[in-house]
Amino acid sequence: MIREQTSSNKVLIIIIAILLVANIATLSLFLLNKKKGDGRDMNDRQNAMRSYLEHDLKFSDTQLNAFDSIREKHKTEMKITFDSMRTNKLLRLKTLARENFTDSSLNIAADVAALQQKKIEMQMLGHLKEIRTLCSPLQIAGFDTGFYKLMTRPQGDVKKKEK
Predict the structure, then answer these.
(1) Distance (Å, whole) CA 151 – CA 36
(2) How many angstroms separate the first and last alpha carbons of the chain?
(3) Is-contact 82 124, C-beta < 8 A?
(4) How many domains is the chain built from?
(5) Separation between Cα atoms, residue 90 and residue 70, nearest integer Å
(6) pLDDT of residue 79
(7) Tell me: the pLDDT tens digits for 23-79?
(8) Neighbours of 20 (CB within 10 A)
(9) Domain-embedded: residue 121
């Protein structure tokens, strides 16, 4: 009987070890072979617009340098905006708790969040408008028909699959 339990335990240990190795291998393959999604991965998204301007619209070096300046300015402004949003969200949540989550406090918190979201959208759209001003008259048509393709996520994006 003890011998039977020992054999049974050894089999279970071997099965667990095989499953562990299989999980590690699957996780490694997933992390190492993660697809970039045509330059739309978050790490590559910044370079996707520059690449589009350079290769598809044939921006000159002067235009690309101006774009790089605009991009850095926008990145700095957005960082400030998001930092402010984080701070304001914490304050809003504390205020909600202090006011016992009344309907009026919920409405105020939602209105403030909507205004902050509008600010982000306006900054992003203003950034696109500023990039568009760098285009020559011939490049504007290409920009207007192609920039939005860079701004959308691919259909296979993980966030769209989650519910």
Answers:
(1) 15
(2) 50
(3) no
(4) 1
(5) 30
(6) 93
(7) 887 877 777 765 544 444 444 667 888 988 999 999 999 999 999 999 999 999 999
(8) 10
(9) yes
| Contact partners, residue 122, CB within 8 Å, separation at least 6 | none
- pLDDT score of 17: 81
Report CA-CA distances (Å) from 22 to 11, 14, 31, 91, 153. Answer: 16, 12, 14, 46, 31
Cα 22 to the center of its chain, rounded Å: 30
Tell me: the pLDDT tens digits for 133-159?
A: 999 999 999 999 988 887 776 655 555
Backbone angles phi, psi at 133, to 5 degrees: -65, -20
Question: Considering the domain boundaries, does residue 16 fall inside one?
Answer: no
Structure tokens given for 50: 């520059």
Domain, as residue range, for 121: 40-153
Asked if 147 and 52 touch (Cβ cutoff 8 Å), the reply is: yes
Gap between the Cα atoms of 160 and 154, Å rounded: 9
Could you give the CA distance from residue 10 to residue 100 in angstroms, rounded to a whole number? Answer: 58
Q: How far apart (Å, rounded) are the C-alpha atoms in residues 86 and 59?
A: 36
Residues 6 or more apart in contact with residue 75 via CB below 8 angstroms: 46
Q: Is residue 3 part of a domain?
A: no
Query: Residue 127 and residue 77: Cα distance in Å, rounded?
Result: 10
d(CA 107, CA 150): 35
**In this structure, is residue 5 part of a structural domain?**
no
